[in-house]
């Protein structure tokens, strides 16, 4: 028995982790089609027609709407003893590489955006301690190390408002890692006595300056608490909102100092930038294939007639192949 399937615009990439041969987790499968996720090569998953695809198609044709792994686990699975008798050939005649905007339905928030009016009069920017607190960010890196090691007086200041603070943090975040030696190593040792759970060394045994600046803010908070009530600088959990000992998150920082909610991300272009030898940096895009799938079943004539009768009775004229690719049966030959 031979079944020929014509299909158009079959997606050949996956946007979710996990696989269809496992029960769906309670929280659903994770979305890995965002730009941030695609920074990791393992999340750019390319797909092709497999036996599972073919079996999924055949089950749809006879009206079985269950997940394939569910159907395979039942005693009345029609293809239980037939899968070894099935061969297939995929002939994609057209392969298009397209920029496709993938919408994330989970309601993730933008890492670098915010909404609403900015609250410049928050106590963390207008209190007696504010200038001494945020002044840590005005220091040069060498000055910061001296401040942490010797508790040298702060002689520099920075304008106290959310946009200026976050702009300075973003600037510091671009500073290159420095070697863990001399004054830097001594600074790290002191910070680890205050914050033993913080890990400052990277894989290259270097330190990112932004980590020292963020930890410097926490250290300064401890020092200032000897003279000021620092409760207005802390969140309910005792932290600096949006700033950890090792870095910061812009959306969390600005969420506290704006009147609006975090900006929702509804999706983005499905593109992975990757270095290819001889070509330089290239864009890896979503692939859409159009072509023909031939399914050959080496089964007894009576079984073939039964299968055709089931297909005719189900009346399935079209279905999805490869997520969004529209497919339909063009021929069935016994």
The averaged pLDDT comes out at 91
Succession of helices and strands: EEEHHEEHHHHEHEHHEEEHEE
**Which regions have little confidence, pLDDT < 50, spanning 5+ residues?**
none
Instruction: Indicate the multimeric state.
Output: single chain
Helical content class: 25-40%
Distance between the termini: 4 Å
What share of residues are in beta strands? 15-25%
Structural class: alpha+beta
Total strands? 12
Largest sheet: 6 strands, antiparallel
Number of distinct helices: 10
Taken from the alpha-carbon principal axes, the silhouette is: elongated
Explained architecture:
This protein is of the alpha+beta class and 334 residues long. The protein is 29% helix and 22% strand. It has helices at 51-61, 68-72, 123-126, 130-134, 141-150, 162-173, 183-194, 209-224, 250-256, 301-314; strands at residues 2-11, 13-14, 45-46, 86-98, 101-103, 178-179, 206-207, 267-269, 271-276, 280-297, 319-321, 325-333. Strands 1, 4, 9, 10, 11 and 12 form a 6-stranded antiparallel sheet that branches. The chain has a two-stranded antiparallel ribbon with strand order 2-3. Helix 5 (141-150) crosses helix 7 and helix 7 (183-194) packs across helix 8 (209-224). The longest helix has 16 residues, at 209-224. The chain starts with a strand and ends with a strand.
């Amino acid at each position: 028995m031979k079944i020929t399937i014509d299909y158009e615009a079959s997606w050949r990439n996956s946007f979710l982790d996990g696989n269809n041969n496992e029960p769906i987790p309670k929280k659903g499968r994770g979305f890995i089609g965002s730009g941030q996720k695609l920074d990791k090569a393992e999340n750019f998953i390319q797909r092709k027609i497999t036996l599972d695809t073919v079996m999924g198609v055949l089950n749809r044709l006879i009206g079985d709407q269950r997940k394939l792994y569910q159907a395979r686990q039942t005693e009345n699975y029609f293809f239980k003893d037939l899968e070894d008798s099935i061969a297939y050939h995929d002939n994609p005649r057209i392969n298009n590489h397209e920029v496709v905007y993938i919408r994330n339905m989970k309601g993730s928030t933008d890492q670098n955006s915010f909404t609403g009016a900015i609250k410049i009069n928050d106590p963390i920017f207008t209190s007696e301690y504010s200038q001494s607190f945020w002044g840590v960010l005005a220091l040069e890196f060498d000055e910061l190390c001296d401040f942490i090691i010797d508790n040298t007086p702060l002689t520099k200041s920075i304008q106290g408002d959310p946009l200026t603070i976050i702009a300075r943090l973003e600037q510091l975040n671009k500073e290159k890692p420095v070697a863990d030696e001399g004054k830097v190593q001594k600074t790290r040792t002191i910070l680890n006595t205050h914050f033993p759970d913080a890990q400052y060394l990277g894989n290259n045994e270097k330190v990112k300056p932004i980590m020292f600046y963020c930890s410097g803010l926490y250290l300064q908070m401890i020092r200032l608490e000897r003279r000021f009530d620092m409760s207005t600088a802390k969140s309910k959990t005792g932290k600096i909102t949006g700033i950890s000992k090792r870095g910061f998150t812009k959306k969390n920082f600005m969420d506290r100092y704006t009147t609006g909610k975090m900006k929702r991300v509804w999706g983005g272009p499905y593109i992975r930038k990757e270095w290819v030898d001889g070509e330089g940096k290239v864009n890896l895009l979503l692939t859409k294939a159009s072509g023909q799938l031939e399914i050959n079943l080496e089964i007894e004539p009576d079984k073939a007639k039964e299968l055709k009768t089931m297909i005719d009775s189900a009346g399935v004229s079209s279905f999805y192949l490869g997520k969004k690719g529209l497919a339909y049966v063009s021929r069935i030959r016994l």
